[in-house]
Structures are given as structure tokens and as C-alpha cells.
Amino acid sequence: MASVLKRTSLKIGMIPADGIGKEVLPAAQRVLEALGSAIPKPEFIPLLAGWGEFNKNGKALPEETIRVLKEECDSAMFGSVSSPSHKVAGYSSPIVALRKHLDLYANVRPVSSVPIPGQQQSFKCDMVIVRENTECLYIKQETISTNPDGSKIALATRQITSRASERIGKMAFEIALRRGQERLAAPKGKESWWKGEPKVTIVHKSNVLSVTDGLFRESVRSIKEGTDRYAGIKMEEQLVDSMVYRMFREPEIFDVAVAPNLYGDIISDGAAALVGSLGLVPSINAGDNFVMGEPVHGSAPDIEGKNIANPIASIRSAALVLSSLGYVEPAAKINAAVDAVLMEGTYLTPDLGGKSTTTEVTDAVLKRL
Ligand code: GGG
């Protein structure tokens, strides 16, 4: 978010939506509640959305949910959604719609490796993927028609605008600037292994999509070129395919990566594989006036209701919300407790090779807060 002025109240809209969202959001709530006087007493407002809600009441995103978020909440947490893979009349993804309604134009996804006993990690990864959140193919303008020979043709419009690309570029450079300052200010013993200058990598495919990705690339570049503010930040580019390859070969070379919506979605799931599990990767959907935390993972129907979903992505997403609202120290406290649990390796959910439940991992984090 643009402003990091501390809010004096914390009214958090809680939208678990579908599947394991209903299990991991309560875990994040327990952690926020345990912070005590470090933050204003949070008020949690339960809100409806999702595929389940659509099947029950015919609306994936009820107007009341949008109203309460806009009029009563300072921030929100979203769990996960089980959108079907085929077209369903009247259904539209509630998370995509929420990002639009609240103008949450950036999806910020930090991906960092923590040494976990029993996990093979021969590299270091500490990067932030900044995904444009409002356009690209996600404007969902699709048509299908039939050719004279009876075969079908489906078309999708991909929208890239200079406005959306510039503001996501600005967000990426601001994040790189802040990360650089935080690294310089890190106390002795807690120094980052990243020794270079802050860096923003622009991810695109403008050698093929020279008009749309070309505009994205030019617009992000113009942000650095238009001011001295980012003079200390290196800017480089990667074609999206090469980005995937290099991320898997040498993830330690990336600091902040900025990408159009679809590439950003794909590379962040790939990056999650590097750090052990999608269940570890948090995100925030951020606009200039509102922030919504959201674990990067989906609704995982195969493990729904078993109390074995990894709550860490959700807990770290709550920490990201707090630090966006100006509560940087309580957020750091949450992340330190999570790191301690992971490094100890006693309480791990099955996605990390452990046998612990969602509740046990949450309890372990609470103990170390
Ligand atoms: N928390 C991320 C999540 O729920 N992912 C699933 C997802 O986004 N599905 C597609 C959609 O409904 O938009």
C-alpha cells in the first residue's frame, strides 16, 4: 500500500470462501488475536464468497460482502476458492471480482527459503514477485464461435494498459527500495546474504507479444527512468520462459520480479516449489487504500476437512497485512515465530513431510510468539 500510517482500529473482513480456506483463515485469526497489546484489538467480520456460496445462494460474491469491506473494514483476509474449470452460467471468480471492486492492483508475493530439517534446499531464495492484479487475460473477455467448416474458435482479449503497468512498476520499485533499506539497517547477526544493490526484474515476452508485453515493459521501465528516486536500484529483464529456467537454476539472483497478471501467477507457484511447499507462500492484494491477505495456495479439495492443511501461508499473509498497515514489528514477530517452527522441524504438515495437523502447527507458532 502507498501509506504505511498506522491504523488505530483493525477491522478485518474474513472471507474463508472454499475448501481449506475455512481451516487456514481461523489459524491466522488465532495468531492475530495472540498479539495482545502489540496491535489494536482486532475485530474480525465474517463474510461470504466462493463456489460453495454460489451453489447455496446463487452469488459467488454477495453485494453485502463488498459493501461491508468498503464501508466497515480496514483490511481483509481471503482464504481460497474452488472455481470450476468449465463455464458455469452466472458464476464468476469472486477473488478476481474482489480485486477489481477494491482496486487491489498489486498481488505481492514474497517467496523466501527457510532451512527445514529433512527438506533438500541447496540454494537460497528471498524474492518478491509483484503480480499485476487487474488486467492481462484476467479481464475475461472470451468468445467462442464456429467456423464455416464446423470447427470452433475461441478468442480471449488480453489487455495491458500503460496506467496499470506503470502503477505496478512503481509498486515494484518501492518494494525494492524498502528491501534495500531494510537490508542496510539489519542488525549484526541478521544480515541478509544478498550483498548486491536492490534489483527489479521485469518479466515479459515482448520478443513475441511486442505490442502488449512491449507496453508493459516500456511502462515499467519508464518508472525508473523518470526519477532519481530509484537510481540505486538495478533494472533488468527476463523473458518469462527464461525467468522460469533461471529461477529454478539460480533463484538467489532475484530480488523483486514484476510481471503481468498471468505470468505472475505462474511464476509464483513455480517459486513456491523452490521453498518446499505452496503451503508456505503468502500474498497480499494491495491497492492504495486497502489490503487483503491471501495464501497463494488454492482450496485443495483433496485435503479439505482433514485438519492437515498448512496454515503458514495464511499466517504469513496476516503478517503482511499487519506490516502494510504500519505494524511492522508485530508482523516481524509472527514471521520469526513461523521461522522458528519451520527450522525446528518438529511440527510440520504433510506437504512438508511431517505428520502434524493444522491445529498443532498453529499451536506451535503461538507458543513461539
Ligand atoms: N488463495 C488462492 C486461490 O484461491 N487460488 C485459486 C484460484 O484463484 N482459482 C481461480 C479463481 O477462482 O480465480
Automatic annotation (TrEMBL):
A GO cellular component annotation in the UniProt record: mitochondrion
Molecular function per GO: homoisocitrate dehydrogenase activity; isocitrate dehydrogenase (NAD+) activity; magnesium ion binding; NAD binding
Pfam family, one: Iso_dh
Domain Isopropylmalate dehydrogenase-like: 11-365
Single biological process term from Gene Ontology: tricarboxylic acid cycle
InterPro entries according to UniProt: IsoCit/isopropylmalate_DH_CS, IsoPropMal-DH-like_dom
PROSITE patterns: IDH_IMDH (PS00470)
Keywords assigned by UniProt, alphabetized: Magnesium
Domain of life: Eukaryota
Family note: Belongs to the isocitrate and isopropylmalate dehydrogenases family.
Name of the protein: Isopropylmalate dehydrogenase-like domain-containing protein
